[in-house]
Amino acid sequence: MLRFLNSCRLRAFFAAAWLLILAASPLTGQDRSKAAANEGAKAKPNVLFILVDDLGFMDIEPNHPDTFYQTPHLSRLAARGVRFRHGYAAAPVCSPTRASILTGKYPLRTGITDYISPNGGNQPEPWRRPTRRLPAAYRDRLALEETTLAEAFQEAGYATFFAGKWHLGPEGFWPEDQGFDFNFGGIDRGGPYGGKRYFSPYGNPRLKDGPEGEHLPDRLASETVSFLEQHRNRPFFAYLSFYSVHTPLMARKDLQAKYEQKRKSAPPDVWGQEGERKVRMVQNHAVYAGMVEAMDQAVGKVLDALDRLQLRENTIVVFTSDNGGLSTSEGHPTSNLPLRAGKGWLYEGGIREPWIVVWPGKAEAGSLCDQPVSSPDFYPSLLEMAGLPLRPDQHLDGRSFVPLLLGQKSGPLRPLFWHYPHYGNQGGSPGGAMRLGPWKLIQFFEDQRVELYHLEQDPEEKEDLAAVFPGLADVLRKQLQQWQTRCGATFPTSRIDSPDKEKTDRKLRRPPNVVLIMSDDQGWGDVGFRGHPHLKTPHLDRLAEDGIRLERFYAAAPVCSPTRGSQLSGRHPARYGIPYANQGHLPIQEISLAEAFSNSGYATGHFGKWHLGTLSNQVRDGRRGGRQPEHFSPPWHHGFQSCFSTEQAVPTWNPIQNQKIPTHYWLGPGVIAQRDLSGDDSRVIVDRALPFMQEAIQKRRPFFAVLWFHAPHSPVLAGPEHRLPYADLEEDYQHYYGCISAMDQQIGRLRQALQEWGAAENTLIWFCSDNGPAASGGGPGQKPGGRQRGSTAGLRGRKGSLYEGGIRVPAMVVWPQGLPKGKRFSAPVTTSDVLPTVLAAAGIPYPDRQRPLDGENILPWLQKEDTPPPRGLAFLSKGQLAFMQGRFKMVRPAATAPLELYDLERDPSERQNLAEHEAKRLAEMEAAWKAWRQSCRRSRQGADYSEP
Question: Who's near 730: CB < 8 A, 6+ residues apart?
Fold first, then answer.
C-alpha cells in the first residue's frame, strides 16, 4: 500500500509538509467574531453541551448504522447538524480531555495529563506496577486561575448549569468554583461509585437521592430539563456531562433483557490482541448496549424539551465523548472496529470520538465534515458562534471550526498533538502523537520508537510506514518534540537513579512469574517431609527446603470448588456464592488473579481441574455441563488466555478411557482437546503447561500459570511405574501413593525446566491442597471412598469437616529472588491470602479498593523474621462454622451442635473442648464471626458488584 509515492513525489511531499508545518498557526477568528457579535446582540443563542464518558466513535448509529446499539435520538440530532468524522479528544482518558474542553488548551498546558485518581495511585511516587519506567507526575485539579468556558459565558450574562461527571479536582475545584451557577452531581469521582451506582440512592454530595431505583442518566436529563424550563427567557450555557457509559457496567433491567434477546442473533464473541491485552472485536455486550440506549433516551428527553419550550431554533447543541470506547480492559464492553484499540491508547480507537454540532440556521443540517478537529477547539468555536469576543490568551490551542460549519475552507494545514506520558489502565503505554493531514505519527516513550500511518489509506492503522518513509517520520517526530518543548512537557522517568541503573532497570522490568499449584484432596500428612511412613515426595520436600513451609495453611473451605474460588478471588466463598462442590459458579463480576495479571501484561494460563462453573452450554460435560447453562463460567471468562481445563475431577491414570462421567479437556470456547491424553494425568497437564511457560519466556513476557492437578482425588489410579515403589502395600495404597508420586515427579520436571530456561530465580511457586483427605471421618456430604487413603497426620476430621483435618493442608511458597530459603512460617495463612500476596510481589494493585477481601498480603511477614499480629480467620460450610484467632479456634461441627473451643497450640488434634472454661473468649469470637457473616451476606446480595 502507498507505493504510489515515488521518490520524486516523496521529496515534494517532504518540502510541502515542512512548509505547512511551519505555516500552521491558530486562526484568531476576531473579524468573524466581531461581525457575529453585531448580529448576535439581537438574540444571544443558547448552548447545550452534551458530553458522554467512554463512548466510542462506532457506538452510535449515525457513525455506524450496523452497530449493536440503538441510538435513534442521536440520529435525530445528527440529522439536524454537522457530523465530524475526524473529531478527536485531546487525550485517550477522561480528565485531560475534560480540562481541554473547558480551557481551550491541550492537556499538557493544564498539567492534567492523566485521569485524576482520588488517592494519587497513578502518580510516580506510589507507583507499584512492574513497568519499565515511572509515569510522569500530573496536576490533580483544574487551576482556578484558568478562565473556563463556563466563566466566559457567565461573564457574558449567561445562566450556567452543570449536571453529571466533573472529575477535575477535589472539593473547592468543583463546577460551582469554575463558572457554573448550578451543579448537579459534579464531584471528584470518575464514576458513579457511591450508593447503588447508577441507581438511587446515589451517595453523591452534589445530587440529592431520588426515589429508590431511579436511573442516573434519566435523573441528569430531568435536572437539565428543569433548568431549561426555568431559564427559557435568558441565554443559557447548559453542560450535561453523563457518567454513562463509564464503568461500573450497569443497565436497567428492561434494556438489558432487550439486548440479551438481541444478542442471541448477534455474532458470538471474537477477540483480538492489542499488545499484551485482548481486545473485543464484536459489539454484543447486552449490559453496555442497555447503557448506551439509556443515555440516548436521556438525550432525547432534553431534545424534546427544547422542542416543547420552542428553544430549538436558538440553541446550539454539541454532542461528543471524552475518549474512545473501552475495548481492552475492565469488562471489554465494546468494539471500536475498524478503529484500532480503544480507551487508554493513542491509536484511533482511543482518541477519535463522536462529534455532532447543531447550529440552527447557520450550519447545513445533515452535513458531514472530514477536517480533523480536537476538543480544545470547542472553546473558541462556541464563543464565536454565540457572538462573544474570543479569548486568545486563554484558548491557546483551540481553533474555531466555524468556517467548517459554514462550509468554508479551514485555512492552512494544521497539526494536532497528543501527549500521554502515562501507563493506561487499559494497556496503553506512555507516548505522544501528532496528525498532519492524512499522516499520523505515534512515538512510544519507553524505547522512543515511532510508528507512522496514512489514515486515508489505512484507517485501521495496520501498516506501520515508519521504515518505508523514514524521512517523513523524522520530520513529524521533530515537530512533535518541538511542540512538547514549547509546552513544557514532562516524560516518564527511569525507575531508579543509581550507578547500576541499567542493571536495576532490567531487574525491575522483570516482574516475577507466578505459578500456583494445587493438589486435590491431599491431606496435611500426605508429604514425605512430614515423616510419612511410606509416601515418597522428594520434589515437594525439595520445594519446602528451597522456600517457606507454611505450617498452618488453611483451605478456605473443606471441599474443592469453594477453596479454588478463594485462591483466585482473595475472598471467601460465602461472598461469591459457591457453597459446596458442584454448586454455584464463580461470578463474572469477581476480580480474579488471572484478570489482574492479564491486565498488567502477563501471559495467563489455566491447566487442570477448574470446577468453578461449567465449560459448555451445549456439550454434556462433567456433572453439570450442557445441563445447567446458568452456571456457565469457564476460565477464559476470568482472565485466562490459555486453557487446558476440565469441569470436574477425572481419573488420575488414562483420564479419558477410565471415565464414568464424560468429561473433556477444554482448550477454549467450544474447543476440546483430542490428542495426547493417555497415561498419567499429572504428566498430561504439565505437557500443556510447559510450552505455555516457554513461549512466554522466549517473548520476555511474565506469566501466571495455574496448575490444578486432579491427584489424589477419586477415581484414584496410578500407572505401573508409580505403583512399583509401593508394591509391598495393599493395592489401594499403591494407587493412592502412586498418583501423588506421579504428581510430585511432574512438579520436579516443571522446576527443572524453569531452571534450564533461566527463569527459576524469578518465579514464585505456591503449592497447596484444596482440602483435607477424603474417606470416612469427614464432614457433611462426605462418604467413604474406595482408594482414598490420605493422612491428616493425627489432625481431627477429614474432607468436608471444619476440624483441622478437613482444612489444614500441606503448603509451601518458593521465590528465590524474593523470599528466604528454608523458613518455617507458623502463623495461620489461608488460600484467600494468595491473591493479595502475589499481587504485592508483582507490584500490581488490586483494582477495586472498596471491595472487601478476606485475604491479606502476608509478603512482608514471609520476608521478615517477625510474627504477624493475630487475626481472625472465618469459615462456613454446610451448617458448620469456625473462627480462628491466634492459637484459639471456635468450631460448630453441625447446624444444631453447640459451639466448641480449642487451643491449637496445646491441642492441635482438637480433643479438649474449652467452651465452658473460656465462655467470654468464645462469646467474643462468636460475635466476630457473626459480624463477618453479615459482611458476607451484603457481598452475596451484590453490594460489591458494579454490574448486576
Answer: none
- Looking at residue 562, its pLDDT comes to 97
For 191-251, what is the HEC assignment?
Answer: CCCCCECCECCCCECCECCCCCCCEHHHHHHHHHHHHHHHCCCCCEEEEEECCCCCCCCCC
Q: Is the pLDDT of residue 608 over 70?
A: yes
* Alpha-carbon distance values, 93 to 110, 273, 353, 420 (Å): 15, 20, 12, 9
Residue 653 DSSP one-character state: B
Q: What is the pLDDT of residue 1?
A: 40
What 3-state DSSP class applies to 880?
A: strand
Give the pLDDT of residue 947. 60
Q: How many CA atoms lie within 13 A of 831 on its CB side?
A: 33
pLDDT at position 111: 96
Q: Is the pLDDT of residue 14 over 60?
A: no
Please give the pLDDT value at position 410: 66
Phi, psi of 238 (to 5 degrees): -105, 125
Write the CB contacts of 880 (distance below 8 Å, at least 6 apart in sequence). 558, 779, 780, 801, 802, 891, 892, 893, 894, 895
Per the CB < 8 A criterion, the answer to whether 765 and 517 are in contact is yes
Comparing CA positions, the residue from 538, 543, 536, 540 lying closest to residue 723 is 536
pLDDT averaged over every residue in the chain:
91
Task: Determine the average pLDDT of the residues in 129-156.
Answer: 94
- Model-level pTM? 0.59
More confident residue, 335 or 125: 335
Strand partners, 183: 162
Q: Is 918 helix (H, G, I), strand (E, B) or coil?
A: coil
Gap between the Cα atoms of 929 and 931, Å rounded = 5
Residue 344 phi/psi, 5° resolution?
90, -5
C-alpha span between 125 and 586 (Å, rounded): 35
State residue 700's pLDDT score.
84
Beta strands in 700-810 (DSSP E): 703-708, 763-769
DSSP state of 727: T
Helices (H) then strands (E): counts for the chain = 25, 33
